[in-house]
Amino acid sequence: MLGLGLFDNVLKSCFHLRSEIDANSDAYLSDKLPSCAFCHVCVENGFSILWEDENYIAFKDHRPASKHHYLCLLDSVKSLQQSDDPLVRDMRALGDQLLDEKGVPPPMRRMGFHIPPFNSVDHLHLHVHGLPYTSFFQAARYPIVSGEGSNSKGYSWFVEVGQAIDILERGRSVNVMPS
Predict the structure, then answer these.
(1) How far apart are CA 29 and CA 134, in angstroms?
(2) Which of 8, 109, 134, 150 has the highest count of CB atoms within 10 angstroms of its CB?
């Protein structure tokens, strides 16, 4: 199995629980459920949902770092392998669709993933940004560093979605070090 190294922690998904539990049931409110904020994405829990189907959900980030800041989540992926490249491509396509709807031109788009331990939520989610960033400090949280030679990305805690796809296609691991 081709994992993503340090990226594996963020790929543990419990999102599928959201669709398996009735929001009005006692189990939904139980302390027995995981404490992951993204496991219970719904309007009733304060999320501004933009897109939802059986595989993906997209919503507005509650602390936007850019003019348009959305998060795209996979339904129930536990870890990504080389064969899961289409899932990441689908997430990118969903991000592009959301930004198309807002009229954000391609040069003003940034999409990617934080790499553990530099993530705030241990649940796979793609950051979708329609620039500009709200501040220099917000932009600094999402550095895209190009790699040299055979490496797609350089030393960074953030991987651009295209870099992640390239790394997966080559059967390599996504981590903070160049890959």
Answers:
(1) 35
(2) 109
pLDDT in tens, 122-135: 788 999 999 999 99
Is residue 34 pLDDT above 70, yes or no?
A: no
Confidence of residue 29 (pLDDT cuts 50, 70, 90): very low
Query: Does the pLDDT at position 62 exceed 80?
Result: yes
Torsion of CA 98, 165, 66, 114, to 10 degrees: 130
Percentages (nearest 5) of helix, strand, coil residues in the chain: 35, 20, 45
Is 127 catalytic? The answer is: yes
CATH entry, 43-169, from 3.40.720.10, 3.30.450.40, 3.30.428.10, 3.40.50.720: 3.30.428.10
Sequence ranges of the domains in the chain? 43-169
Considering only CA atoms, which of 59, 65, 56, 82 is closest in space to residue 164?
Answer: 82
123, 125, 127, 129: which one is catalytic? 127
